[in-house]
Amino acid sequence: MSACQQPVGAEQPAAAAPVVDLMAALRQSVESARASRGEGQGEEATVHDMPQRAGRKAAQKKAARNPAKKTGGRRPRSA
Hints:
Helix content: 25-40%
Low-confidence stretches: none
Order of helices and strands: HH
Number of strands: 0
Largest sheet: none
Strand content: under 5%
Shape: flat
Structural class: mainly alpha
Radius of gyration: 32 Å
Number of helices: 2
Mean pLDDT: 76
Distance between the termini: 62 Å
């Protein structure tokens, strides 16, 4: 039996499934979403500074006041 021949009674291979270009599908989906929101092709996003949160300094002071407790490490196995 050569590599090209199939044994008698073997199933025929299924027809090849069509290949889907996932990147093209993603680009098309993104473009349709942008168009539905009314965004232009070359529009840039607006960038601005985030406001500072008031609670951050209080949390830092509390952490400095109460240092983290050290654990004992791994306990040895008992025999």
